[in-house]
């Protein structure tokens, strides 16, 4: 038996952990079944063309919407609901300083 631990400290309170784990598993399966060559060790210079991860929730939502492969992993109504909920959260937190934003998120979750 293999045990897998997924550290979700950056996700805590920000997303449904089951959705996050499901996406990680689905992405891993896609990598295993897509016939990609096994990656070699890469130097920092080799990674220069690799796009950075989104730097905000809004840019992450836009990246999700523009990625047809990842969108196909979700039922359309679930995806629409998740996008709507996250955009509503952003609207409620807009203009707050970090301390107040953190307090409100902690109060909800």
UniProtKB/TrEMBL annotation:
<dbReference type="GO" id="GO:0004356">
    <property type="term" value="F:glutamine synthetase activity"/>
</dbReference>
<dbReference type="InterPro" id="IPR014746">
    <property type="entry name" value="Gln_synth/guanido_kin_cat_dom"/>
</dbReference>
<comment type="similarity">
    <text>Belongs to the glutamine synthetase family.</text>
</comment>
<dbReference type="Pfam" id="PF00120">
    <property type="entry name" value="Gln-synt_C"/>
</dbReference>
<dbReference type="InterPro" id="IPR008146">
    <property type="entry name" value="Gln_synth_cat_dom"/>
</dbReference>
<protein>
    <submittedName>
        <fullName>Glutamine synthetase</fullName>
    </submittedName>
</protein>
<feature type="domain" description="GS catalytic">
    <location>
        <begin position="14"/>
        <end position="93"/>
    </location>
</feature>
